[in-house]
Protein: CHAT domain-containing protein
Amino acid sequence: MREKRQNCVALGWITPSCQGKGKPVLHLHDYYPVLNLDDYYPVLNLDDYYPVLHLDDCYPVLNLDDYYPVLHIDGYYPVLHLDDYYPVLHQYVYYPVFHLDDYASLYCFN
Structure:
């Protein structure tokens, strides 16, 4: 089991999806799910059938790269990375901005 990272701050938590589909909802505070992977409330919606991230139900804004676990806004500049070994979101290629710890509901900052 990996040790918890030293630079983690408990700012949020994970709850299951509102329809019980197993997709987690990530909250920054008590009332509003800021990052939501649930189909029912698609603030950010990871499609079940296509590797596309949605800001709403109809319009895909971020495409999952075919060769690397990278989310792109365009084809040249990777904006969000999904790390293979940690559930990590990277704002830039080499500088991870915040992490979601998979053993605790922590946002981790470098």
User: Anything to note?
Assistant: Residues 1-110 have pLDDT under 50 and may be disordered.
